[in-house]
Amino acid sequence: MAAVRELPWLARHSSPGRVVPFPRLAPFNFPHTRGRFWQPRRFTPRSLCSEGRRSTRSGSRSRRTSDPRSPGRARAERAAIGPSPGIAFRCRGSMDANLRLWRAEGPSFWQRLLLWADVLDPLHLLKSADEIRRARLLLENNEKTQSEPLQNHQTKQAFLLSLASVHPDTGRTIPVFFRPPAFLPVTLPLVMSSSLQLQAKQIFLCQFAFHAYTTGFTLLNGNCTTKDEENSLHQKQILLGVGAVSYAALLGAFPFYFMDRYTLKSPVTNLVVKRLLPAPLLGLMNAFTVVAVRSAEFENGIEVMDRNGKVVGVSKKAGEKAVKETALSRGILFGTTFFLPAALMHFVERANTTRTPRALASLRMLLTMAVLAGMLPISLGIFPQCGEIKREELEAEILSSTEETVLFYNRGI
Asked: Which stretch of 3-17, 241-255, 350-364 has the lowest confidence by average pLDDT?
């Protein structure tokens, strides 16, 4: 195609017969196009969909004959482009590689704890999109590693990167700040600021930011197989999330406002409001935000799969169980994170080991950091990530479509 063409056209406000040159168009900035006006089409590698390999291979000849370029050159260009970011790695109707690994490597709490300790490594956040894509391609090509224990170091690192970066339901890459390895670095300063002895207005702002992040994390890492209209479901989850965040922040700051408003400064009031009340209140509010933002899962149901990864149906009972387990684990995480440092600091202050306010504040931060870092993999590993539900607990329409005794689903984080 010629780089520049001048096409005559008659301008309305110009003199008759005037020829206006067509503006120059710069070629697309792709190194393999060599200046041609060509835009790559979306392409999904055949290795990503194991169920549709035969159909893809049978239709490969017709695509090759219709492509004006040579087959070798076309394959080289497709390999250079890679899959489009908007294309999911997972084929609908099959279990994702992440869930297969959780089912094979996480039957016990100790195994899940060790696996979560590796997944939560913040160094996974430094990996590029190309490295994540190559890891997923490696996992999809090696189907044996999805059901066998991890022995190959390269395959293990690919699995850890996939668990830390890719959503198991959609197959899409999670935004960086909402990936599991980013949960601790982001929530740690928010938890510390919320635990400080501040005024009611400052506590409201700190808890609003804290609940806003945890709610966004829950929304992006929850189960995404809910059957409903996509636009209406997305808007409903956003509205419920905003309402839940505002209510949780107001309720968390209300005891401090009540104490400042009526000048209640007695030792008993300080003990209850500043030491005993924040831990259960924050734990309950975190569980509440999880239930609110993921309410569509137990209202509309989530997909359940058999042992082979085939989707059997949509179950509300499985959605209710997934939301309950996630809300309970989130409440345990932050309830313990607020309770243990406060209890330990109470004994430290009574022992009079250190009387400097700066030293007490530093010790409180260290205790909060240690408890949060230790409780995060514990709370995530309490329940299996690839959840199990018995056949008799499901709906009647699912019972008639399968004979499996145990079905599986994605619990979400």
From this structure: 3-17
Residue 289 CB partners (closer than 8 Å, separation 6+): 211, 214, 215, 218, 241, 244, 245, 248
pLDDT of residue 108: 86
Provide the token pair at 153: 């170091």
Distance CA 110, CA 96 (A): 23
Contact 293, 236 (CB under 8 A): no
The count of C-alpha atoms lying within 13 angstroms of the C-alpha of 349, restricted to the half-sphere facing its C-beta, is 13
- Quick one: the chain helix, strand, coil %, rounded to 5? 60, 5, 35
- What are the backbone angles phi and psi of residue 389, rounded to the nearest 5°? -140, 135
For residues 372 and 337, what is the distance between their CA atoms, to the nearest angstrom? 5
Asked if 410 and 386 touch (Cβ cutoff 8 Å), the reply is yes
Neighbour-count burial of 26, counting CB atoms closer than 10 A to its CB (0-12 exposed, 13-18 middle, 19+ buried):
exposed
Q: In the chain, how long is the greatest CA-to-CA distance?
A: 97
What is each CA distance from 365 to 194, 258, 327, 339, in whole angstroms?
A: 12, 26, 26, 13
Sign of CA dihedral 204, 210, 212, 214: negative
Q: Is the separation of the CB atoms in 304 and 407 below 8 Å? A: yes
Cα separation, 390 vs 400, in Å, equals 14
* Mean pLDDT within 74-85: 45
Determine the pLDDT at residue 30.
39
| 285 phi/psi in degrees, rounded to 5 | -70, -35
DSSP category for residue 166: B
Instruction: Say how far apart CA 382 and CA 324 lie, in whole Å.
Output: 12
Asked whether the predicted pLDDT for residue 66 surpasses 70, the reply is no
**What value, to the nearest 5°, has the Cα angle with vertex 244 and ends 238 and 246?**
105
CB 410 within 8 A of CB 169: yes
pLDDT band for position 298 (cuts 50, 70, 90): confident
Asked whether the whole model's pTM tops 0.90, one would answer no
386: which 2 tokens?
């690839």
**Residue 406: phi, psi to the nearest 5?**
-130, 135
Exposure string over 238-252, b if 16+ CB within 10 A, otherwise e = eebbeebbeebbebb
What tokens appear for 176 in the block? 């960086």
Pick from 272, 251, 259, 257: nearest CA to 200: 257
